[in-house]
Amino acid sequence: MLHQFTLFAPIFSGGNNAGRCSFAGNSSVRDVRSLRFMKQASGRQSNNEHGVFSETMDRAKHRATTAYGGRAQEGVLEEESSKVIESRPSWKAFPGQSFPLGVSEVDSGINFAIFSQNATAVTLCLVLPERGSIDALDGGMIEMVLDPDLNKTGDIWHICIEDLPRSNVLYGYRIDGPRDWGKGHRFDSSIVLVDPYAKLVEGRRYFGDISMKLSKFLGTYDFDSLPFDWGENYKLPNISEKDLVIYEMNVRAFTSDESSGLDSNIRGSYLGMIEKIPHLLELGINAVELLPVFEFDELEFQRRPNPRDHMINTWGYSTINFFAPMSRYASAGGGSVNASREFKQMVKSLHSAGIEVILDVVYNHTNEADDAFPYTTSFRGIDNKVYYMLDNNGQLLNFSGCGNTLNCNHPVVMELILDSLRHWVTEYHVDGFRFDLASVLCRGIDGSPLNAPPLIRAIAKDAVLSRCKIIAEPWDCGGLYLVGSFPNWDRWAEWNGKYRDDVRKFIKVILRD
């Protein structure tokens, strides 16, 4: 039986049909030698309103007709623009496997797998190492359309590609599906989306770089680097919860100012934290609670005119991806791979000093905002109806105060959160988590409060998380205030907001008198 397999090679165009190249094969293995891969040598990078990678061109037209039954496909490409360079990668593509989600290295190549229950079309987008940097985007993007008959198992879309580089490849997805907002769908195939299971995310390299404020975000992977060396004598502090003295802090703000006395290359970085460990010990603390360190866009307010378009989000409560460490906390603009390694160096050094690492995690909402001014980077475009809480009219519910609410107790989203937590424990050796607006995690898929939330129980009972401190901020912006009554399964601790406020009032009185 003949199978058609379609590849796209747009030159960062806003459309979804530029540069289409198809071929037919007589097995599930496809030879991609006929692929036409195009990249523009000169041109101005621009961004359209949908947040799609685009490279300015005068005009590009493409006409293609497909022939079946062993006949070669004929295509005509008319190009009226600046100089174009042509390249032809030689790959083989296999149907791939549905597990694990994200990117994995398997015997036959690099496997990609992504969940979308309601998608009707999924396209894998790749940018190869010769791209230069994500800021320059001077390479082309190759797009591979997945065949639902071959590249889909249940609700998982997957493909395996032989001979892909083992690192330095950027990737994302275009996903299409029903356009019915009333039923909760927000598909837009013009947008290249970040894989929710991407373990590394690339964006602009330097924190707050206004010249790159419209920089895009893509997943990447690294199967070339050696495993991080935690050392033979390395051990976890394992401090009893009752003995913790926790210091809440922001990684970047802690050392970003020149008054830190650090070299400019490591100010505001994970490595900068290491240099200040003696200061932390002098304070008498034995745990740090780091404000969000998952990838976020600090310039999200500056993407459109608004009253806050002069501001930079330095706290980070606006997650793009739940697995990737904030790449701009790497030293010297080192990018995502260095950020991952340096985060581990920071944890190792803190542990060696007897200091535990607790992460402030935001699983109640994402950066994608609301329907009025959406910032679609991932979940919204992949399967909005699954990832977010909706009302009966398909509109976003907002218990976070940030425009959307993650659908935490949906089985797929619950597993995503558990996988994320386990990843930070096994890969980065963190000691615990403080859950921002944790009452959201106690709501059902329709937003109603649950007496026994499945996610809260699963976190409490999870074997990998069993050694971790799990701390709830037990309220949300929908009025679900659970201080003293948070469902805990004898595992969850709570931040006591009332006690905190009383202490603050007392201190103010003492200082005033």
UniProtKB/TrEMBL annotation:
Molecular function terms from GO: hydrolase activity, hydrolyzing O-glycosyl compounds
A GO biological process of this protein is:
carbohydrate metabolic process
The Glycosyl hydrolase family 13 catalytic domain covers which part of the protein?
Answer: 248-504
Xref: InterPro entries: GH (IPR017853), GH13_cat_dom (IPR006047), GlgX_Isoamylase_N_E_set (IPR044505), Glyco_hydro_13_N (IPR004193), Ig-like_fold (IPR013783), Ig_E-set (IPR014756)
**What Pfam family is a match for this entry?**
CBM_48
Q: Which family does it belong to?
A: Belongs to the glycosyl hydrolase 13 family.
PANTHER family for this protein: GLYCOGEN DEBRANCHING ENZYME
Protein name as annotated: Glycosyl hydrolase family 13 catalytic domain-containing protein
The record lists the lineage as: Eukaryota, Viridiplantae, Streptophyta, Embryophyta, Tracheophyta
Coding gene? LOC100806342
